[in-house]
Every structure is written in C-alpha cells, then in structure tokens.
Design goal:
The chain has 126 residues and is of the alpha+beta class. It has 2 helices and 5 strands, in the order ααβββββ. The strands form 2 sheets. The protein has a 3-stranded antiparallel β-sheet, with no helix packed on it. A two-stranded antiparallel sheet has the order 1-2. The N and C termini lie far apart (123 Å). 4% of the residues are buried.
Length: 126
C-alpha cells in the first residue's frame, strides 16, 4: 500500500559498499605499511581546515597595526591610511605620511614649516 513512500531507512548493498570501500582502502594501506600516506592526507586536510582561521587572526592583527585613522593636519578631515606610506588627503589633496601613528605633512628637504598666528592690530598713538 505504501508504494509511493521514500525509502529513508533502507540500506541496500550498493549503498553499504559505498560506505565500506573507503574504510577498507584506508585499512589496507595502514596494514601494508603505508600508514604514513593516510596520516599525511589527514594532516593535509587538517591544515586546509585550520589555515583560514589562522589567516583571519593574522589579518586582523596586521590591520590593527598598519591601518591608521587620524585627521588631516591641514583641513581636519578624518580618514584612514596605511602605516609607512604616503597618500593624499581626499578632502584637500595635501600629501601626507604617517609618523608616530599620526598624519604629518610631507615637505621637501630645506622647507621650514611654520604656523601663522593672527595678531590683532591696534593703532599706535604718538
């Protein structure tokens, strides 16, 4: 009567042999002295599984050390840049570099960088 129901729990000989053949091959290789081949394969599979996890932690460590977020010393625009690299401010176009985890202006050798101070003028009486 249940001719249309799926055979969920039935295991035929062909299904059983598909499960048994890989185990028999591993057992045969281990018994004739080629266990190192099986161990090498298992180690390789383990490395392939764990290497992405290690790569994520290494990438997070590298980013925390080399990506700097600071403000441009010229226009106070906040953005990110890479450590030990020269780049331009996306707002004002000033060439900057990272020194001591802060953005600094890049000036040619021999240039004296000064900051102007506004002085209020008052008339002088004689």
């Amino acid at each position: 009567m249940n001719q249309g129901s799926p055979k969920l729990w039935s295991l035929t000989l062909s299904d059983f042999s598909r499960l048994l053949v890989p185990l028999l091959i591993i057992w045969l290789l281990a018994s004739i002295g080629l266990g190192w081949l099986v161990n090498s394969f298992l180690i390789l599979v383990g490395l392939l599984l764990i290497s992405p996890v290690i790569a994520v932690f290494v990438l997070r460590w590298w980013v925390s050390r080399n990506v700097i977020t600071d403000q441009c010393p010229v226009c106070d625009y906040e953005f990110t840049g890479l450590n030990q690299a020269q780049f331009q401010c996306p707002n004002c176009g000033e060439t900057l570099k990272v020194e001591n985890r802060q953005f600094q202006r890049v000036t040619p050798p021999g240039t004296i960088d000064v900051q102007a101070v506004e002085v209020s003028s008052s008339p002088v009486d004689n």
